[in-house]
Amino acid sequence: MNIPAFGVGTFRLQGQAVIDSVRNALDLGYRAIDTAQIYENEAEVGQAIAESGVPREALFVTTKIWVPNYARDKLIPSLKDSLAKLRSDYADLTLIHWPAPGNGVSIEEFMSALAEAKTQGLTRQIGISNFPIAETRAAIAAVGREQIATNQIELSPYLQNRKLAAFLQEQGIPVTSYMTLAYGKVLKDPVIGQIAQRHDATTAQVALAWALQLGYAVIPSSTKRENLASNLLAQDLRLTDEDMAQIAALERNGREVSPEGLAAQWD
Ligand SMILES: NC(=O)c1ccc[n+]([C@@H]2O[C@H](COP(=O)([O-])OP(=O)(O)OC[C@H]3O[C@@H](n4cnc5c(N)ncnc54)[C@H](OP(=O)(O)O)[C@@H]3O)[C@@H](O)[C@H]2O)c1
Fold first, then answer.
1. What are the binding positions for substrate in this chain (predicted)?
2. Is the CB of 19 under 6 A from ligand 1?
């Protein structure tokens, strides 16, 4: 099984904003939605899906288990709570949100519990998020690499994560790039601006097309229907080798997200 190349993110979106964003996205043709227990918007995502009229089997819904729910006796009940909020019998993909070293639950324990959730039919696929190489190796050791559908990581033109991405590729684990737009920062980049001009495209489309062309899945979020619509068209944009090389040169270790206690040692 594969994961969709293009989805919509919902981080930071609450209440009516997330309902509107997911409703617009589904209306525009998005079929993959990324949420998480900690986003506290699963119920609104579920409402928007129910009201959209799009059949559940046409959708790909991802959620992520939050840190206090990693223990063997908590993970599956917490996923069942998420599913009730999402108004679904299953998730398409369930991720461990952060490695959270030192929270008292081993990678072996939470990955086995997650694999058990899959066996029980609560999630079609399982995966990890924000896992550096060492923690990914431990997750592979726990459940086998073929079980890990993706590692969802921060990856943008300013944080290209080449070492981790190369390792994941070697292992055959697909990369999902989150914050591909660096929460809007890369949209003001002059080099990306020039590439966009050459293609008569937006800077967001260029950044998204760059990630897609490297083989990564993307999940950009937006509160605006016109941005959701134009982002989706990044799938039709073909960047040249020269464009790709110019963007490769923008790397600056521009990490936006690294919460203490949740992140492990980055590669
Ligand atoms: N696994 C994790 O730990 C993790 C962490 C962070 C995020 N994520 C996931 O990844 C998703 C994407 O990340 P993100 O939402 O933080 O950041 P992002 O997609 O990099 O950027 C979103 C920002 O860019 C703006 N934007 C989007 N399209 C635009 C366009 N065409 N033109 C101009 N501005 C545009 C949005 O503003 P407007 O609303 O004004 O369009 C918003 O401020 C999240 O929603 C979440 O689902 C996962």
1. 97
2. no
